[in-house]
Each structure stands twice: as structure tokens, then as C-alpha cells.
Amino acid sequence: MTTIALLSANLDMGYLLPAFRAEFPDAELRTMADLGPLDAIDAAVCWAPPAGLMARMPRLALIQSLGAGIDHITADAALPDVPVCRIVDTDMASGMAAYVTWAVIHGQRHMGRYLASAAAGRWEEASVQPPRAHRVGIAGLGTLGLACARALMALGYSVRGWSRSPREVPEGLAYFHGAAQQAEFLAGCDTLVCLLPLTEETAGILGRDLFAQLPRGAHLVNVGRGAHLVETDLIPALDAGHLGAATLDAFVQEPLPAEHPFWRDPRIVVTPHIATRTQPAVIARQTRLNLERIRAGQAAEVAVDLQRGY
Ligand code: NDP
Ligand code: OXD
């Protein structure tokens, strides 16, 4: 008998149960409300699991993230030595590409201004520039970053990307990698999209020093993690004109507290961590495939490199 635990300290994981019942008809499924004996659990499916809990599961063979990121798992200082897998999924990538394309167009085509004018019944035109005149930089050229780059290039935007190590990229994508090429990358980003994983190297990367390297008035789109952004640097950078606008989907504290100044700043668009989502059936299927491979002595397909942190 396989036992799967759905673990989260802050999310009701009940919505996953029907998909897991369909994918694992013979397994025992447990939730935080009904964890039972920890020594029977084979796989933990997680979003921000309680720290130290998985270290007390001696049979655990797989730690499966609900999403693409795994920082909410590696935050557990007592993580057991068990493969950690993340979701890689085409629907998730196209969902992110759709969100990022919207954010870029919303900024570049002044949609915020038109919405405000329309609400006041005013016919007011702003400049109309072709996509090719707008340079979009994507920091993090992995599964999601590449999907965004392709979608924006298909619309004619001038797209550049930046990653940690050299990699193959689609023709037409201006490409930079490593710390040595970061400044050159940033200097050509009218919109900067953050699609980095949260690691020791990337935490706090979106701060005063980086903003100063962007073209004046750049639009920041953060769809990575809240902790990529030094929150206290954002409004001063907007006030100083280093940044012109920000679109933020991830925050240090989620839900973003009602009193947070980002809600009330008209230069900042806040969305509630919805840029993209994984469908429950995909999570259940990838969990089954990963568990099968691990039990067969093979490496799981999307196991994370914990040394690298993503
Ligand atoms: P991948 O692991 O496929 O890609 C990560 C990319 O970031 C790679 O190109 C990697 O470089 C690059 N990178 C990592 N560290 C550095 C660094 N120090 N300097 C420069 N580049 C770096 O991840 P995904 O594309 O699947 O996901 C990215 C992130 O998106 C997730 O970790 C998560 O935080 C966020 N996310 C947000 C969602 C939302 O709804 N807001 C939904 C899903 C994910 P290299 O190619 O050299 O390895
Ligand atoms: C993820 C997310 O990492 O939704 O998948 O943020």
C-alpha cells in the first residue's frame, strides 16, 4: 500500500484529493488534518510544508512540489535526504507566457492610463509604438522564461534573456549569462521580467543597485518570488524615476496585507500570485511517474539539484 501525504502549513490541499484518488486508486491519501502514523508515508506532495515534519517520515521516497518553485520546501532546514521534484508542464508555461505578455502590453501600450481615462469618460491618446521598439529582458531563461520569450518574440518585441550558465536559445533572442554579462543585459531592458528561482544567489536581486542599471523609467514585472524584490527599494525607485511602473505577482508576505503601500500606489499593479497554476491532474500524474521511477531505481525526471538550489 502506498501512502501519500498532502502537506502545507498555509494552504488547504483538499482540492487535490479528487485528482490523486483518480491517479492512485489504491493508495491511502492523507492531509494535514489526518496525517496518521508518519512512518507509513511514501510521498509528500507539498506547498510550504511545516518545517521538520518530513524529517520524521522514515519511509519517505519522494518530495513533490505543487509548483515549479521549490524554495517553499528547501526553506525547511531539516529536509531529509530524499529526491525533491518540481512541476514542469506545458500548460503552466503557456499560462505564464500569457500573463507576462499581458503585463508587457499593459505597460508598453499604456493600458493603465486608458482604464483610468475610460473610468472618467475621457478620450485621451498616448503614444503608440510598435513592439519592435520595446526591449523586454527576461531574467531566468528556464522552462517558463523561454516560453515567455517565444510568445513575446512572436508578437515582434525585442527580447533578451539572462541565465546563470550558457545554453541554447531560439534564433533572434539576444542572450546573456552569468554575473559578468548582467549589466549589459540590464542596460537593454525597457521591461524587466523576473522569472528566476529563489536561491541564495537571487534573493534580493531586484533592489536599488539593479534598478539603477536599467534604462530610466523601466517597467519591472516580478513573477518569480516576493523575496527577489527588496520591497523597501521599490517606491523610492519609482519616485526617483529609475523605474516607471511595476507589476508584481509574488510577495514576501502572501496574502499581501491590506495596509501594504503597494496596494495604493497607482504605478504598481498587484496580482495575487496567479500568473500561472498547475492543474491538479498534472501534479497527481507527475507524482505517480516520479514515484514509479524512484521505486524502479531510476532518477526522477524533474528532480531538483539541491546544491544549486533550483
Ligand atoms: P527553471 O529552473 O526552468 O529556470 C530557472 C532559470 O533561472 C534558468 O535559466 C537558470 O539558469 C536561471 N537562474 C538560476 N539562478 C540564476 C542566477 N543566479 N543568475 C542568473 N540566472 C539564474 O525554472 P522555471 O522557469 O520552471 O521557474 C522559474 C520560477 O518561476 C520558479 O522558481 C518560481 O519561483 C516562479 N514561478 C512563479 C509562478 C507564479 O505564478 N508567479 C508560477 C510558477 C513559477 P540556467 O539556465 O543557467 O540553469
Ligand atoms: C510555482 C508557483 O512555483 O505557483 O509553481 O509559484
Task: Characterize the structure shown.
This protein is an alpha/beta fold and 310 residues long. It is 29% helix and 17% strand. Helix 7 links the parallel strand 9 and strand 10 (218-222). Residues 67-69 line the site of oxalic acid (OXD).
**DSSP helix fraction:** 25-40%
Bound ligands, each once: NADPH dihydro-nicotinamide-adenine-dinucleotide phosphate, oxalic acid
Quote the distance from N terminus to C terminus. Answer: 31 Å
Looking across the biggest beta sheet, what order are the strands in? 8-7-6-9-10-11-12
Write the layout of secondary structure elements.
Layout: E1 3-8, H1 17-23, E2 28-31, E3 43-47, E4 62-65, H2 71-74, E5 84-85, H3 90-108, H4 111-119, E6 135-139, H5 143-154, E7 158-163, E8 174-177, H6 182-186, E9 191-194, H7 208-213, E10 218-222, H8 231-239, E11 243-248, H9 261-264, E12 268-270, H10 280-295
Parallel strand pairs: 1-2, 1-3, 3-4, 4-5, 6-7, 6-9, 7-8, 9-10, 10-11, 11-12
Helix pairs in contact: 1-10, 3-5
The structure holds NADPH dihydro-nicotinamide-adenine-dinucleotide phosphate and oxalic acid.
Name a few traits of the molecule.
single chain, 310 residues, alpha/beta, seven-stranded parallel sheet, five-stranded parallel sheet, elongated, binds NADPH dihydro-nicotinamide-adenine-dinucleotide phosphate, binds oxalic acid
